[in-house]
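Backbone geometry:

***
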Amino acid sequence: MVPTDTNLALVRRLYDAFAETDIIELLTALHDDIEWVMPGPPEILPFAGTWKGRESIGRLLAVLAGTLVFEVFEPRRFIADGDTVVVIGHSRDRMLATGRIVEIDWVAIIEVRDGKVVRYQVYEDTAAFVAALEPIPA
């Protein structure tokens, strides 16, 4: 097992890369077998679903960029236990299709293997995203 501090540092680098929109650094932190799980109904939330492999994560990041703007993205707490790192955070997102704001707290559970992130699963208020994408009445 890799020391907890090493896994914690890897996950912090992942979030730093995301904040700096350093996609190459972000993808480098991912294991070849990465599985990234985003909750919600995929027929409404284009980023929802299970994304597998680095190439798929690249597509996910493009879908996110085409769906919303992160006005605030704050990973606030990092809790590490062996190969698992839990991140508790907050974000405020503006939906591009409607201009509506979604402000939520979220939790990500991240698993590390061989010095790379092999699984990323986020838990967030998907109903808030669905509501924010509802058509604006004429």
